[in-house]
Amino acid sequence: MTGRRNCFRAVIWLSVFIVCVAPSRGQADKTSELAIDLAILKKQGVKADAAGITGLLQSLRPSEKQSTKIASLIRDLGSDDFNKREQASAALLRLPVPPIQALKIAAKDSDPERRHRAQAILEKVEGQEPVQPLLFAAARVALAKELTNVKEELKACMPLAENPVVKRALKQAIQRKPGNDPIALPAWTDLLNSYLVYGIVEDKRTEFLKQMPTILAKQFKIETRTANTINSVASRHDTSPWLYPQRHKGELPRIIRSPDKHLYPIWGTWKQRYRDWITLNENGSHIKNAHAHGGVHYASQVQYLVIPVKK
Fold first, then answer.
1. Which of 7, 46, 171, 273 is a plausible cystine mate for 41, CB 3.0–4.6 Å?
2. Averaged pLDDT, 57-81
3. Who wins on pLDDT, 216 or 53?
4. Residue 17's pLDDT band (boundaries 50, 70, 90)?
5. Contacts of 14 (CB under 8 A, 6+ apart)
6. Domain boundaries, the chain
7. pLDDT at residue 234, rounded to an integer
8. b/e sequence 109-141, b meaning 16+ C-beta within 10 Å
9. Distances (CA, A) of 287 to 179, 199, 206, 244, 283
10. For residue range 205-215, what is the model confidence (pLDDT) as tens digits?
11. Which pLDDT tens digit goes with each residue over 207-262?
């Protein structure tokens, strides 16, 4: 009897442990869904708590003193003094968060020197601005962890949200009330879809990522896929359906969707081999010449950004 009683007690204690200590299915899903956000924040030295998110959001909004300094540097891009122009360009390039909007305005300035230098800086920092993905990651973490005490900082950052998906994520995090039923987090695939551009070849559409922030390219895996196509163009649809998904529906890559990940073709990486590698223009300006060869094509290649999705 004593042995049976001890066994019963052991079962009870094990049940209590599972309920109290082991993570629920919802918690496990939430953790896996936040893996991307946590990795991005960690890379920026940001803790995924209220204090860390608050500090991040404050750093994305330059103080009045910093704004004045940036305005002065942009004015100096058009200075009569060559050294001052050079120093201003170098200082703007060193900023951790480039003043994209101010530079875009300066790139249309009536002063030719200021306009030229602002355009040159924008070209160098293109795709490097981390503000949009960082805001997105912060909003997702605030939503998932119900960090309601960061709402004021999120509101203050709303003017920084140029991307509609980021803006929507911020609004959700601001309007979230503690204790409400869980809501679906805005997905990273939604954000990546907003960076898509469309190439047209013979009236058929394809999709490519362009001007993607460097912080995303560094965070996610990039996969190169090559299709050996020692056959006619039409046979490629049978040889490599991932690269040419539909017969007679165009020759260019599209997003590859599977239950656990999406693969986005990256603009400028598609190559087709006929004798030598020919880099094709995704808009189609060089594609017709390649098509004119007909017959044998040795290989096609494209790089994809791999984005995990919630299972």
1. 46
2. 89
3. 53
4. very low
5. none
6. 1-26, 34-183, 192-308
7. 53
8. beeeebbebbbebbeebeeebbbbbbbbbbbbb
9. 55, 11, 13, 15, 8
10. 667 888 777 77
11. 788 877 777 888 888 998 876 655 555 555 555 655 655 555 555 677 888 888 88
The number of beta carbons lying within 10 Å of the beta carbon of residue 251 is 24
* Token pair in block for residue 297: 């094509």
